[in-house]
């Protein structure tokens, strides 16, 4: 059996590549069923390989990823041998990471839902803004009248008070904008939605280029690959 495997590897990888392998790796090889071997790497794809250098980077896989083991595994499959325990391990691995992603997705969607408390906060800030707008308008009229009648000192005093109102209005306006952005509502405000594949926030107002960058990005593609594997179960065929 060992001679047949070596012959197969020589055909696939070339004699030079095979001879260049460390003798320890050939003589003291690990059995495919050993727990040290990553079954996800053999069967389909290891999640640790999908998200390197992204914010979801899981770090290096603690198990072995050896290409010659994958070649041997695929050779056994082509010969009709089955590895149901490998399929189960791969499926559980996918479930683990997809469950984590789905929890983040659910949490992100909840942030976009407006509760009764959110509605009241928005209404309260809106009322405060409206009252400030009226107060500012009245203050501008008063300053104008004071200037016309020569009450310069009082006009300056009211102008200083008016600046405080403008600053207060700016703070409230930013607060309201933030509420709208998070809840995904409002006329000209950015409308958000959650990507059902990877759980990232998307803007419905993004242009085609930015949307393409997201859908072709490593993070989105990684979760798409895992979901396709999990849904189709093509590795079991």
TrEMBL record:
GO BP annotations, alphabetical order: mRNA splice site recognition
Organism: Nadsonia fulvescens var. elongata DSM 6958
GO cellular component: U1 snRNP
Domain of life: Eukaryota
GO molecular function, one term: mRNA binding
Pfam families, sorted: LUC7
Membership in a protein family: Belongs to the Luc7 family.
Name by which UniProt lists this protein: LUC7-domain-containing protein
């Amino acid at each position: 059996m060992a001679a047949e495997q070596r012959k197969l590897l020589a055909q696939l990888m070339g004699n030079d590549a095979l001879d260049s392998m460390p003798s320890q790796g050939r003589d003291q090889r690990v059995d495919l069923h050993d727990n040290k071997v990553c079954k996800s790497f053999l069967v389909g794809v290891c999640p640790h390989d999908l998200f390197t250098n992204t914010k979801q980077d899981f770090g290096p896989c603690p198990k072995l990823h050896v290409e010659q083991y994958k070649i041997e595994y695929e050779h056994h499959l082509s010969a009709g041998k089955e590895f149901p325990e490998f399929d189960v391990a791969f499926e559980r691995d996918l479930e683990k990471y997809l469950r984590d992603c789905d929890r983040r997705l659910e949490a992100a969607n909840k942030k976009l839902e407006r509760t009764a408390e959110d509605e009241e906060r928005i209404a309260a800030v809106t009322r405060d803004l409206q009252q400030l707008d009226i107060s500012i308008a009245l203050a501008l009229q008063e300053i104008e009248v004071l200037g016309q009648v020569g009450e310069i000192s009082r006009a300056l005093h009211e102008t200083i008070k008016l600046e405080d109102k403008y600053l207060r209005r700016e703070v409230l306006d930013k607060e309201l904008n933030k509420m709208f952005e998070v809840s995904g509502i409002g006329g000209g405000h950015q409308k958000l939605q959650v990507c059902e594949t990877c759980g990232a926030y998307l803007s419905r107002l993004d242009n085609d280029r930015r949307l393409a960058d997201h859908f072709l990005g490593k993070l989105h593609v990684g979760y798409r690959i895992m979901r396709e594997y999990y849904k189709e179960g093509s590795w079991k065929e």
